[in-house]
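Discussion board: Methods & Data

I've been asked by a reviewer to show the raw model output for two of the constructs in my manuscript, not just the figures. I'm not sure how much to include, so I'm pasting the format here to get opinions. Each protein appears as its amino acid sequence followed by a line of discrete structure tokens. Is this the kind of thing reviewers expect to see in a supplement, or should I convert it first? Here is construct A:
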Amino acid sequence: MKHTDMVQGNLFLNAEPFEYKYDYTRLKTQRSKIFAYMSGEQWRTLSEISTAVNAPEASASAALRDFRKLKYGSHTVDRRIRGDRVKGLWEYRLLINKDNTSL
């Protein structure tokens, strides 16, 4: 099968992508660590976040997106280029919504 013939459903033939009893606590703890690390309003790259909280960069990126959602507090996540624009390295900072600090 060529990769162009593959659909997302084929990626998880043996398991559901998310199972509450296995994944919820791990992901909630990971998100909490990322939130705590980013709470200082300092600019950080995904690599820096990943290294600090021992989580994949994709998980750090997903958590940052989550923090913008009402469910996770409607916080502000700013981003900007770090260094040379050609290199495409982004950095992020979390500005906490003081009216809602839920995760």
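Construct B, same format:
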Amino acid sequence: MLVNLFEKSENELKVFKVERSSNADNFFSFDFILAGCPVINSFKGKVPKELDLYLQRSSGMERKKSAVFIIPKFIGNEKTLKNLMSILEKKGSFVMDFLQIKSPEKDSKLLFSHLK
């Protein structure tokens, strides 16, 4: 659904699915970075290891605007948001917005509205 919204707005969206074997990418040619993950650890707010390693190895995020989102649980949401924001900020990105969404598919319009 989010891809369709981007296509209608005449913007290009490239999705990087992060898995254990994901290679690092260079984000130099992109204008905006959107990173999201589910809350996996309610007490420590840890970002999934695969996403953390992927972002640490990737390059070209300096001076890029970004937004982060999480798929919340009962607790641990704020810590996970802060930790994900911190990873991008350490890479030189400017985190402009953050939000909690229950489902990326269902809440894609809400997510897209934050990216405008």
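Answer (T.O., handling editor elsewhere):
This is acceptable in a supplement if you add a one-line summary per construct. For B, something like: The beta strands are 32-38, 65-71, 94-100.
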